Structures are given as structure tokens and as C-alpha cells.
């Protein structure tokens, strides 16, 4: 029986999700950047940018032991992209950085704890591998799903994610 390492499993999942995420981002219509389906929802460009910036957040989980939101010297996300080319270039850059950080890691390092906090208030403390899955991959997939709904509401064909989409099947 073949067993894979934790690192290899996360890399395989990451590779799959990056392909799907890029397909969604390629369809973000910047002419509708301020589109907001509800007053409590993020604007389209904010949501797309958040999906991309989460890649840098995942890299942080791999390379560091904690993130204090009160630390004024902590890395901040870049400015909101002003074009699809800029959004995709940042996605490609952040994806490559994350993939390299994860490739340079190993199972033992991924069992080390990671703490997400604001001063004394702890939001999450888990092994790095679990943090990557829960606050990294799952979090990104959640927001990518929201982004696919924005596309649907703007009548932009939604690409396949885990099987053919209604648009690719010609439904409706």
C-alpha cells in the first residue's frame, strides 16, 4: 500500500484547487468591479482580491509560527488590483511562492503549531498542516464559491470546478 506524506497530500490538493481558482479568476469582469449582490457582501474586486491574497496568508502558515493582527510590522496585502492582468499576475506569483514554501517544508514542520491572534485574543492555534487545510484551503474554497455566485448573478458562464458546470452542460 502506498502512503503519501501530509506535505504531499496538501501539495496535491493545492495544485488541484489552484487550477480551479485560476479558471474562476480569469472570468472576473473588471468592468463590474464594484458589483455587490448585497450591502453586506464584498464588492466583486474586493472578493477576487481576497481570494488571491489568501495565498500569501497560507504561505505565512508554512513559514512562520504565528500572526498577530496587532503587529503593525506584519506583511499587508498589496493594493487592490486594477485589472484582470494584475489580478492574475499576483495570483501566479503568490501561487508559486506558496507552492515553493510548501515544497521546502516537510511533515515534521507541518506538525508545528501556528497561532493566529490579536494580542492576547487567540483566534486559532493548530498544527500548521491543519491551519493550511482549515484557514487556508477551505477558507479559499468558500470565497471562490462566493465568487462563482457573483459570476452567475452577472450572467458570466461559470467554469467547471468539481465536474461540469451548468454552463458547460448547456443547461438553462
UniProtKB/TrEMBL annotation:
GO molecular function, one term: metal ion binding
Coiled-coil ranges from the UniProt annotation: none
Positions annotated to bind a divalent metal cation: 50, 139, 143
InterPro entries hit by this protein: DinB, DinB/YfiT-like
Entry keyword Methyltransferase: no
Keywords associated with the record: Metal-binding
Family, as annotated: Belongs to the DinB family.
Protein name, as recorded: DinB family protein
